[in-house]
Amino acid sequence: MQHENDIPSKVRHLSDTVVLNNGVRMPWFGLGVFQANDGEEVKQSVLSAIKAGYRSIDTAAAYENEQGVGEAIRQSGVAREQLFITTKLANPDQGYESALEAFESSLGKLGLDYIDLYLIHWPVEGKYKESWRALEKLYDEGRIRAIGVSNFQIHHLEHLMEGSAIVPTVNQVELHPRLSQRELRQFCARHGIQVEAWSPLMKGQLLDNETIVQLAAKHGKTPSQIILRWDVQSSIITIPKSVKEARIRENSDIFDFELSDDDMKAVDELNLNHRIGPDPDNFDF
Fold first, then answer.
1. Do residues 102 and 69 lie in contact, with contact meaning Cβ atoms separated by under 8 Å?
2. C or N terminus of the chain, fewer CB within 10 Å?
3. How far apart are CA 281 and CA 155, in angstroms?
């Protein structure tokens, strides 16, 4: 049975969720904290988001701000079980034993008893399968509610799933109208892997695009709201980053309108397969 809030075009609330392949519910929309400084900046960002109704927060060991995120969670006054917290395994910590140790370190910095979603941050060649074994162990022990990956191409996913007991719940990748990742999205859909977008606004580079600006005028919304609504209606979880309270609120104000099929097609046609972040097949960190 499909619940109404599982149908992306009908998503009407910031708290609406998608059911991952293991039955865990994850919000369609959340806050990313990449490049938010640890301490007051990230803490205020997370507190502003939670106050605005966000329930999903995405951090990573590599962001070096897990401690500030954890402080905000404790200060928010919202019950832990109402929040969905994602963090990620950093590249230098990949491998079996090192991944287990890195998880404990992240958990300690966040000050939490469990993580909702733990991701392998990048497909480090020769190491990500061992890392995945560690994540499977932690999942089986109930330390993590869902495990997944980030920045994995189709061939990485195929290799990871060979001989693995668990299919990733999520693949978080660079995704925006100039890099719509259609082939990867289709592969993930066939295998029950939920796609999540990082850098959904392409660092602001699309906000003056003619198509986006026209749609914003049509719907009485901002260009960023058009792009973020396109994400949700495309069955893509999205986590725009901001440290400004007004922008955090603006980004989440996308649940009172709907893009038409023609609107969606117009945004789809902006794809150029253009990356602004590192290439998952060619990175050296």
1. no
2. N
3. 10
Residue 58 located in a structural domain: yes
pTM higher than 0.90 for the full model? yes
Domain count along the chain: 1
Q: What is the pLDDT of residues 34-43, one digit of tens each?
A: 999 999 999 9
* Domain assignment of residue 176, yes or no: yes
User: Would you call 54 a catalytic residue per the annotation?
Assistant: no
Question: Which domain does 180 fall in, by range?
Answer: 16-205+235-257
**In whole angstroms, what is the distance from residue 261 CA to residue 266 CA?**
9
Degrees, nearest 5: CA angle 73-79-81: 100
Render pLDDT for 193-249 as a digit per residue (tens, 0 to 9).
999 999 999 999 999 999 999 999 999 999 999 999 999 999 999 999 999 999 999
Tell me: is residue 159 an annotated ligand-binding position.
no
Helix axes 154-161, 182-190, angle to 10 degrees: 20
DSSP string covering 133-182: HHHHHHHHTTSEEEEEEES--HHHHHHHHTT-SS--SEEEEE-BTTB--H
Identified catalytic residue from 54, 63, 128, 139: 63
**Amino acid 106: pLDDT:** 98
Residue 246 lies in a domain: yes
Q: Which of 185, 189, 170 lies closest to 117 in space, CA to CA?
A: 170
Whichever domain contains 124, its CATH number is 3.20.20.100
134 in a structural domain? yes
DSSP state of 271: -
**Most distant CA pair in the chain, distance:** 54
Rounded to whole angstroms, the Cα distance separating 51 from 62 reads 26
Please report the sign of the dihedral spanned by the C-alpha atoms of residue 99, residue 87, residue 229, residue 168: positive
pLDDT in tens, 133-153: 999 999 999 999 999 999 999
Place of tokens 């007004």: 246
